Amino acid sequence: MKLTHFIIITIFMFSNCTDKKYENTINISTDHNIFKIICEADDFRDLLFLYNKIMLKIDNEISIFGQIDDIYYNENHILILDSKIGKKVLKFDASGNFECMFGGIGDGPGEYRHPITIYVSNHNKVLILNNNPPDLHVFSFDNILIETIPSHRFPGIFDPQNIDEIDDYYVCYVPGRNGKRIRILDNDFRIVDSFLSDEPAQRKAKLGGGGICVINNYIWVVGAYNPIVSIYDIAGNMIHQTGLHLLNNPKILNNDDIKDLDKGDYRELLSILDNKNITTKIMNLDDQIVITGDFVYSNSYHFDIYDKNGKLIYNQLPFKTNNEKFIKVQDDYILTYSIDDPEIVDNDEINAILYIYKPIWKRNSET
Fold first, then answer.
1. What is the pTM of this model?
2. What is the DSSP string of 264-301?
3. Which among 319, 324, 313 has a CA at the least distance from the CA of 294?
């Protein structure tokens, strides 16, 4: 693919609130006031304020879900994915009233059995990626099936952990393959380019994880269960790489910890995971900072926070969620939920509470 991308590379020094120093190579650094707020935080909650709280109501049997594995939120609607228990994609309005279920359980067009990812595109298309069989279902936001794309049409692309966009292109990260793990697709979901990221390949038979996010038209990649963060342009040129020192942190799981693990040896896997922080996501908050998530199996969360140049601002910032479970960062929203909050535990009409937070530096613009 011939895509020209002009990049001004500047190297300068910037003090870090950890004791680590990193070179900066992209001249779009995070606002200094935000940098100061992050440095003074003791918990990720110190960076947030509660913007909204929504009761997700039970309307009928279809509207019931067991957990939220992925989500899309805007001021008018909520889409949730329950990938493990209910195996469904549900739509609610801004008040938490159930509207519809996208597709259904099965093997036909618009049907799925193992949905793993939902994504709402810039053109308001709802993408549902199914793991088995690995196909892609494309709906309008009004729940009209546009097309189902089977895996044999584009072998290997429908196994991504997440999807993002640059202009009119979809960017997909496909873990667990020794081939080209970054896929660039056009709006008709045709592959127009692909390239091999330099993160160590995940051993797919053992663990999932890894992913991408896009900020200022750069593709940020975190390796599957590996703390290295790499930044690419859309042509596949690496611009910057950081987080290398985290490979030597005994508290963080990396590929070397599981390289000799036999497939299906879950008892050994659990012993390896015990008290290890696990890098599984990379997220763009408000086009200001990038967060990689280190999640411990005990449901505690730690985040590494980078500025827009790929410079580590804060290593292992804890996030105490109380009764809440973290879902994701989307745009300038931080989304968590609870199904066992005392407020709803005995309420048969409420399935869960969705908590919507925003970064504290946005508070003045919201009041």
1. 0.84
2. T-HHHHHHHHTT-B-EEEEEEETTTEEEEEEE-TTS-E
3. 319
Distance CA 299, CA 322 (A): 10
Give the list of residues 6+ apart from residue 46 with CB closer than 8 angstroms, or none. 37, 40, 360
Triad 15, 18, 24: Cα angle to 5°: 45
Inter-residue contact 235 to 3 (CB < 8 Å): yes
- Residue given tokens 């407020």 in the structure block: 343
Run means of pLDDT, 10 residues per run, the chain, 367 residues: 33 37 52 87 94 95 92 96 91 97 91 90 92 86 93 62 87 66 85 72 49 90 77 89 73 69 63 68 89 68 86 86 88 94 88 96 76
Upper half-sphere CA count for residue 219 (Cβ side, 13 Å): 32
Q: How far apart are CA 136 and CA 29, in angstroms?
A: 36
Q: What is the DSSP string of 220-260?
A: EEE-TT---EEEE-TTS-EEEEE-GGGGG-TTB--HHHHTT
